[in-house]
Amino acid sequence: MEQARREMGPDATLVTSHSAGPEAQHLGDYEVVFATELPETVAPDGRLGSGGGTSSSTVAQKASDTILAEIHDLRRICQSWRQVSLRSAGQPSWITGSPELEEVYAELIEGEVDPDLTQQLLAAAQKRLCPVDNPTELGSRGTPWQGFKGEFSRRQNPVEPGSVRAALAAEIQDSFHVDPELGRPGNGPRILALVGPPGAGKTATIAKLAVKYALSTKKPSLLISFDTLRVAASEQLRWYASILGINFLLVDSNRALAQTLEEHQNKDLILIDTPGFASSDLEGGCDAAEFLAGRSDIQKHLVLPATMRFSDLARISSAYDIFRPSRLIFTRMDETETYGPLFCEAVGSGRPISFFSTGQRVPEDLELADKVNLTNRLLPFGNAAMRALAAA
């Protein structure tokens, strides 16, 4: 109030104050409105002026409505400013000036795709749209990206709406891999082990895989719980196994697991649930990790929550390298709308994605990993973009 009176005069009066909404939090924790003048239809002493039959409450309501309208206008301005800031934050100069590039760049950055990876994808998309015959000449114009921008701007035919988005979508799909094939082909059972941090959803995913594959194939299958740290995890799997009519075993050592696998060579599918280790637990080595890493017949899938930040995903993925996982499964896909971190992890690790877990239902909320699905989550398509992609 002191600040308002210094700026607006001693008659400044507080009209309203409340906590700032999410769209305006970057400007401050609270929104306050001060006024210095009453409406012209009200006399300074508070009596009605020449406005005639207008009541004081009506005048006050109109003044309040005017103030609220101004607040809404300010919010819209702040939101627009925030969007412009997101689009321009760290935006390289070769993107500036191209509305198509600026739009998709802002979408990927807001989706938390790494800026360097975003620029690489956009440069490749421009090269796809504007192939350059002479790379040497391109380099003489500055950076390759600047050269692509020059080629892009000199095209005689205008770029159709959606072409940039379609080219970028194609580059995104080329940058990561998917492989939902269960187990390693060959003689003997298909053996799958899920590894990952505590709470990632390994046990629930094992149950979904068991229902989706073991029950549908009607071939002999086996569920193994190697998780001796949590009693509830093994009991949950035991319950699913009893409902499905699938064999279930609890093993408590590497030796017991090796013996169990040897004794069940007649099974078609063996699913192994493992304990959840924190990254710090794996720093000094891990017997279970050493055993699983040494078994090339066991396909290891690293289970990670899609709700994690990229830095956390990268740290956990690095810690779980000692298991030598060959696939990625992302859970909690229904709990986020930000898919950049998991995309960056798939690109950075080079591991194909096998499955998405999109909810709690068993087995309905288990999806085969699909390039188009993830690309559409990262870069939503309009009708024009879909037509351009179909034409490509």
Topology (elements, then pairings):
Elements (H helix, E strand, L loop, with lengths): L1 H7 L4 E7 L10 E6 L20 H33 L10 H12 L4 H15 L5 H6 L3 H10 L9 H13 L14 E6 L6 H16 L3 E5 L5 H14 L2 E4 L3 H10 L5 E5 L13 H7 L4 E8 L4 H10 L7 E5 L8 H10 L3 E5 L8 E3 L2 H8 L4 H9 L1
Parallel strand pairs: 3-6, 3-7, 4-5, 4-6, 7-8, 8-9
Antiparallel strand pairs: 1-2, 9-10
How far from one another are the termini?
A: 61 Å
The poorly predicted ranges are: 39-53, 135-150, 152-158, 383-391
Indicate the radius of gyration in whole angstroms. Answer: 30 Å
| Average predicted local confidence, pLDDT | 79
CATH topology of the largest domain: Rossmann fold
Report strand %: 5-15%
CATH architecture of the largest domain: 3-Layer(aba) Sandwich
Secondary-structure content class: alpha/beta
User: What is the 3D shape?
Assistant: elongated
Largest sheet: 8 strands, mixed
- Domains, number: 3
By CATH reckoning, the class of the largest domain would read Alpha Beta
Number of strands: 10
